[in-house]
Amino acid sequence: MSELAPYLPQLLVAWGAYIIATASPGPAIVAIISTAISHGRRAGLALAFGVLTGSYTWAMLAVAGLSALIRTYGNALFILKIAGGLYLLWLAYKALKAAMRKEPETTTLLDRQPPSSRRLYLKGLGIHLTNPKAIFSWLTLVSLGTPQDAPHVMAVLIGGCMLLGVVIFTGFALLFSIEPVHRAYRKARRGIEAAMAGFFAFAGFKLLTARI
Predict the structure, then answer these.
(1) Is residue 104's pLDDT more than 50?
(2) Residue 73: its pLDDT value, please?
(3) Which domain holds residue 197?
């Protein structure tokens, strides 16, 4: 522990940046919230773990020297940006389709079969793996929290971010899966789905037109 003390301020800055970047509203957080309130705790957690897997995939690649790969294979990042934007637009279409669907007044969450946990996990994974901003966030975190003369600090940085990510992503899934939130969702389902469609469409369009 004493070996890490000199680097603690640097690590705290990096962890603080991670919390802000992770907890801020974005496609992953919105997807977790909408899944948890529409399908419950288990579905929200499945999607959250998919997002976490995608996040730490980019973390490991950042540690392995992703910035050098980006410089060498710049076209790959452009393709990833297009894929991510189109994926978000597809999610917008799905949310809009759900918003337009009418359900009988007696329909409840238990009456509707939620997507499988595997499908939700892959959806969360896809959201994060096709988001170029996640790549640059990790590259920034690695540069903030890892001194060049102390590469062993990297493990502490990544470990701390992993713990924080589990708390944040699963926390959103658990919070928005409680019964009062379900009742509120049933009353405002179509408006919520429409708002989700608008958000995903905006995020997809912004990603497609952004300069990387």
Answers:
(1) no
(2) 52
(3) 5-209
The answer, yes or no, to whether residue 107 has pLDDT greater than 50, is no
Percent of the residues in the chain that have a pLDDT greater than 90, as a whole number: 17
Domain count for the chain: 1
Say how far apart CA 12 and CA 115 lie, in whole Å.
38
Cβ proximity of 153 and 147 under 8 Å? yes
